[in-house]
Give the backbone structure.
Amino acid sequence: MVPLSYYLVLSGFLFACGVAGFLIKRNIITIFMSIELMLNGVNLSFVAFAAHWHAAGGETHGIVPLSGQVFVFFVMVVAAAEAAVGLAIIIAVYRTRETLNVDQVNLLKL
Amino acid sequence: MTANLNLWLIPVLPLAGAAINGFLGKKSSRTAVTTVGLVFSGAAFAWAFSVALRFSSADLPYQEFVAHWIRSGNFSADFALYLDQLSLVMLLVVTGVGFLIHIYSVGYMWDDPSYYRFFAYLNLFMFFMLTLILANNYLLMFIGWEGVGLASYLLIGFWFMKDSAASAGKKAFIVNRIGDFGFLIGLFLIIQHFGSLNFTQVFAQVQPIAPETGGAGLLTAIGILLMVGACGKSAQIPLYVWLPDAMEGPTPVSALIHAATMVTAGVYMVSRSHVIFERAPMALMVVAVIGTLTALFAATIGIAQTDIKKILAYSTISQLGYMFMACGVGAFSAGIFHLMTHAFFKGLLFLAAGSVIHAVGGEQDMRKMGGLRSYIPWTFLTMGIATLAIAGIPPFAGFWSKDEILWQAYQTSWVYWLIGVITAFITSFYMFRLLFMTFFGDYHGAQVDEHGRGSHGHDGHGHGEPHESPMVMLVPLMILAVLSLVGGLVGWHNHFEHFLDPVFSSGAASETAGVISSRLMEYVLMGISVAVAFLGLLLAYVLYVSKPYLPQRIADLLNGFYTAVLNKYYVDEFYAKLFVKPLIQGSTNILWQGVDRKTIDDTVNNAADGARHVSDEVRHMQSGNLRSYAGWIAAGSAAVIAYMIWMGVR
């Protein structure tokens, strides 16, 4: 069996990639994809923990079985909804400003 | 309780008058205002009179409960009224003289644009004064006490457009606060030790206490503190300075508040507290010494004044000194007797002075008067009677009461008596000086017209020659003149004292005022006081009528002393240097510049400035750049995580 730490390291790596992409990239769509990457990094840790506690017999200590997996489904649903709204916003932004470069979309200030 | 006297009506009637005139008077006609003002004060007098008629049928002291007020644990103070011989005398004096002065004011104030305001204030004053008199506990008395102070302030500053009037009102108010402070502390002491402010309860507890002859104790402290309050209200040394300035108010106010009634509140309060004072010989001595000194001191200032009202003001202070002297030697009934006769003749003097001022068109300087006898004969006659009364010439009212005080003072100590007699001489002198300067000799007024003499022009103030006042002003003068003439006769064979005996003998500590000296001694002393009164008259006549060049020479001769007297011994200047200036300087430099501006204002301003500066810097964070926001979030999260790892938070 693959130890838990492997999953967590991978999960952390995915999340860090997402953060880095979010900070570095200028294109809104790439940034958007980075967000998905972060979400999936977290999802991975959810399922990894769920499997780990299940294997360790956590149910006897009050851990609800499959709760990690259920959370992942929630996150996916929310991510899908977010993707729908986010893409709509991106299209709207592109129509008005004719660019997807976030450095040129900086009206969000005093 | 035999009969319900409905005492509450007496103070409430003037209050209703004050409310009606105060709220509706501005839009009403003068006639309506006059009607309201006179009807309500007259009704109060009528009711007081009817109470006096039914007085013998009531159980004394008569108490009347009106409403609950303060109930806190064992302590209670209610709106409850108290009537005994002492409050009855005060009641009749205040409502009677007050009503007469209301009538007089109709004539005196008719042309004033704030006619309604005057009557509203005057009625308000009556309400508070009657509350003060009728209260059955110290707290309600204090309400009245403060209320008359308020009315006094409002009326002194009645012509508030005049700077001097406004500041005189403030001065009266502030000086009274000093006295009230002492009064309040006295009341606190009473609450602390007797758990009540109700007269009956307090005095019942004080009664068994032995007189503090050995040294100063609790009762002495209470007595002296109450006297401090009385000093403020009744203008005694060292707090008398407000009264002469209070003459800025309209003359009827000077007559009612600053001569006849309010300023005697201190005497009333001390007399009411006689049970306490009788058990505190040292406090009594303080009262007597203050009274005696004030009597002499104020009288000497009166000699050199030239403002007709100022003379009367100092005379009032001096006469109040007499009353306190009487209280101080334990002769409370003599003090109240003098209070009553003084209300008559001093009220009359002020009203007559008002009539004189009215006659010469607002002039108050006696040097610009003279020879008014033929112009205003009625005023002259009534003022002459009042002068004879205050000078102590028999059979006028002042003679009886003043003589009674001097006789009682003599029985305590000849020193009091001697100073009293000297004061009586000075009083007689300066009062006749006033009379002679005003009514004898030639008229020195500016508007005199040699050819127009004899024609009686009623053409308003400041025009034409002096003219007699209208009947509405003269009638009160005449009534008061009659009272000044015969008012003293109630003291015949000590009838007045015997009337008040139930008040003052109940709870008297010891009968010291027994017959010590012979009847002969009393007559000798009486003869002396009459003699000095005539001597004063004679001296004034010589100096101001037969040899009018002499006063100037004497003044030149006694240059330094004369200047000091003329400037009222520089007491105002002394107070200004000692108290007022340091207070103003301290307030300006420490409280205003130091505390308020440097500390409070600067703290607030610096906090605001600091927030602004910090915000100015932090503002740059909010660039509008999405990626920089994300960076901040990431940095913040990293910081939190680092912190959690560092601190080992699980």
User: Anything to note?
Assistant: The first helix of chain B runs from residue 9 to 24. Chain B touches chain A through eleven residues (CB under 8 Å).
